């Protein structure tokens, strides 16, 4: 008991305590105490862990006995444990499929799995025993961890034959897993045409089985790099042909296997040493997985993130058309938004007419939904622009500028320019919508009054239309956040449907459909399939948005829940109808000004919520963390100071900022 309370790291540092390789438990305690020196006192101060590790590295360099004890502790654990499971299974998310992984984690929530002491994962769990240790492990930079492992100076020739055999066995198991995955129909059909007769994933397996021939090592390294390139190429093809959850699982597992195989080949080649950078990546992954191995949230995040990336890609490609670069594109966006505003005027008038029918709440909600859906589809089909639909798409395009899967190091200057372009494009679309909605809706209200002798709204009803947009006499700003959520969800659905259409090759299947071949000409089938292939996502998104907005009001009437929506252009149209119904002489100018500010606030929260949610999903699906780029805010501020008007309208000349330098 007394020995367990000793701090073996401190004793080695201050009392010249020397470890014995024959005492495995003592060596393990030494590792526990060493990383206890690195672990920060509070997880919120995880950044302090890097300073702690740098101090430990300095102590290892300054004290030969401490360094020797460190090597003995590590070598002893490797010599007395089985490392195969660590290399082949740990951190291999989804290797058993989503359902099996979910049920396993759920059961282990109640009854944790048994950890054998001769398993190297037992060592990992003993040393990094706190469930949030992965936070500070990941907070330490890759370079600092490389310094630590380089200081350790671990080499394979220090180990016995059993350890080398374990590495070779793990390599063979991973190799067969990669070869098997490449033969799965979903993966095989995506293999590049040049590999149809010579599957590079099978070639690597053949080379692994010849690894006792030392001349094979370099060839195998090159083939593994080619395998990684082909896996990446398949992932890129998914952006065009669509992705499925099962295919995403297999590619993710294949990527993990290949990265570990590179470590093992490096370890078993002639120089008998590890590639330190890859070792650090693997070490971080294992610590994270062991800390989070029973986390259901982590499972959902990892499993759906890969498909979310493909959905975000489809949204991002569409988002490019909403980003203006030249003055010509800017004014074209303005005109397009004015066209969208004109259609919204009809939607607002029809919605108020439907409200006069006094239908049952359910059918009234359906009527509103159909009105909204038809209007949104009309905006899409006429290539007009609705300002609030942009954020869900432009957010993915902005996140794409930070995508390290496409670029080794993102150009933050170029990202600042992209943010400016998105901001001014959003300004143009809001301005175009509002420049038309208020005056034209007013004109429609006047025409209706002249032709029928009745106003669309008057008295208490007209006043209610104004009060519903007032920022503090109603919950308009809160309801605007609900609309932002619905805009995000409809954009996500649009991306999902578009991905599904392309992955399932619906267009080709329609062309070859036996019934359609009997009833339609080849030309009509081709036009129909092309239309659905290119418009199915937007149609689904527009219909979904229409029903989300139209049905929200019935919850108040049916369930008594204070839930509603506010959409900037629809609210602007309602203000026009309400003001006409009351007359300018009956509305105080100050009150009307506050209502107009409320409409602008509604637009702000529509944009903020929709853009933020879409941006977060796009970042997470790409594995991007904004905290890794703290200098971006400074770069963006410098750009704003130099060119503030760029956030409102484009310049006619382009300088180094526009070039991303």
From TrEMBL:
Gene3D superfamilies: Glycerol uptake facilitator protein. It comes from Filimonas effusa. This is Recombinase. The keyword Transmembrane applies. It is found in: Membrane. The chain crosses the membrane at residues 330-350, 362-379, 430-448, 477-497, 534-556, 591-619. GO terms for cellular component: membrane. It is a multi-pass membrane protein. Its main location: membrane. It comes from the Bacteria.
């Amino acid at each position: 008991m007394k020995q367990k309370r000793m701090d073996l790291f401190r004793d080695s540092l201050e009392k010249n305590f020397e470890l014995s390789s024959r005492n495995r438990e003592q060596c393990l305690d030494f590792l526990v105490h060493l990383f206890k020196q690195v672990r920060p006192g509070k997880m919120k101060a995880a950044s302090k862990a890097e300073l702690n590790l740098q101090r430990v590295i300095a102590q290892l360099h300054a004290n030969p006995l401490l360094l020797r004890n460190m090597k003995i502790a590590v070598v002893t654990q490797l010599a007395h444990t089985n490392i195969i499971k660590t290399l082949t299974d740990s951190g291999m998310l989804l290797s058993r499929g989503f359902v099996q992984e979910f049920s396993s984690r759920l059961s282990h929530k109640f009854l944790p799995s048994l950890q054998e002491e001769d398993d190297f994962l037992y060592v990992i769990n003993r040393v990094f025993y706190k469930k949030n240790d992965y936070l500070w492990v990941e907070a330490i930079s890759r370079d600092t961890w490389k310094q630590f492992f380089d200081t350790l100076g671990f080499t394979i020739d220090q180990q016995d034959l059993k350890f080398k055999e374990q590495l070779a066995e793990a390599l063979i198991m991973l190799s067969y897993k990669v070869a098997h995955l490449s033969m799965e129909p979903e993966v095989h059909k995506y293999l590049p045409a040049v590999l149809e007769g010579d599957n590079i994933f099978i070639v690597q397996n053949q080379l692994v089985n010849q690894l006792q021939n030392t001349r094979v090592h370099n060839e195998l390294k090159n083939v593994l790099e080619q395998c990684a390139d082909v896996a990446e190429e398949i992932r890129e093809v998914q952006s065009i042909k669509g992705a499925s959850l099962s295919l995403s699982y297999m590619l993710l597992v294949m990527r993990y296997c290949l990265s570990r195989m590179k470590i093992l080949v490096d370890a078993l080649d002639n120089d008998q040493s590890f590639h330190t950078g890859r070792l650090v990546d693997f070490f971080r992954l294992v610590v994270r997985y062991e800390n989070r191995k029973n986390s259901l949230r982590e499972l959902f995040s990892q499993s759906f993130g890969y498909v979310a990336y493909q959905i975000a890609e489809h949204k991002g490609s569409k988002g490019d058309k909403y980003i203006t670069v030249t003055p010509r594109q800017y004014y074209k966006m303005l005109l397009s938004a004015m066209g969208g505003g004109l259609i919204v005027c009809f939607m607002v008038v029809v919605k108020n007419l439907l409200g006069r029918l006094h239908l049952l709440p359910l059918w009234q909600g359906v009527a509103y939904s159909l009105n909204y859906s038809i209007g949104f589809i009309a905006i899409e089909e006429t290539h007009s622009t609705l300002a609030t639909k942009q954020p869900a798409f432009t957010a993915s395009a902005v996140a794409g500028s930070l995508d390290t899967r496409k670029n080794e190091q993102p150009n933050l200057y170029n990202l600042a320019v992209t943010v400016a372009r998105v901001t001014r494009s959003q300004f143009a679309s809001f301005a175009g919508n509002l420049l038309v909605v208020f005056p034209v809706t007013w004109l429609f209200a006047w025409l209706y009054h002249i032709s029928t002798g009745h106003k669309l709204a008057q008295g208490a009803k007209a006043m209610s239309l104004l009060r519903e947009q007032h920022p503090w006499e109603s919950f308009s700003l809160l309801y605007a956040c609900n609309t932002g959520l619905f805009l995000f969800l409809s954009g996500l659905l649009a991306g999902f449907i578009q991905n599904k259409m392309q992955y399932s090759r619906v267009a080709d299947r329609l062309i070859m459909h036996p019934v359609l071949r009997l009833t339609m000409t080849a030309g009509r089938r081709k036009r129909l399939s092309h239309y659905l292939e290119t418009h199915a996502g937007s149609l689904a998104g527009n219909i979904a948005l229409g029903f989300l907005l139209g049905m929200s009001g019935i919850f108040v009437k049916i369930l008594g829940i204070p839930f509603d929506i506010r959409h900037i252009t629809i609210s602007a149209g309602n203000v026009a109808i309400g003001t006409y119904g009351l007359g300018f002489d009956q509305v105080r100018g100050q009150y009307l000004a506050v209502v107009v500010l409320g409409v602008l606030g509604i637009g702000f929260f529509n944009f903020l919520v929709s853009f933020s949610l879409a941006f977060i999903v796009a970042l997470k699906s790409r594995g991007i963390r904004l905290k890794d780029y703290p200098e971006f805010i400074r770069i963006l501020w410098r750009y704003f100071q130099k060119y503030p008007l760029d956030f409102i309208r484009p310049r006619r000349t382009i300088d180094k900022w526009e070039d991303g330098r």
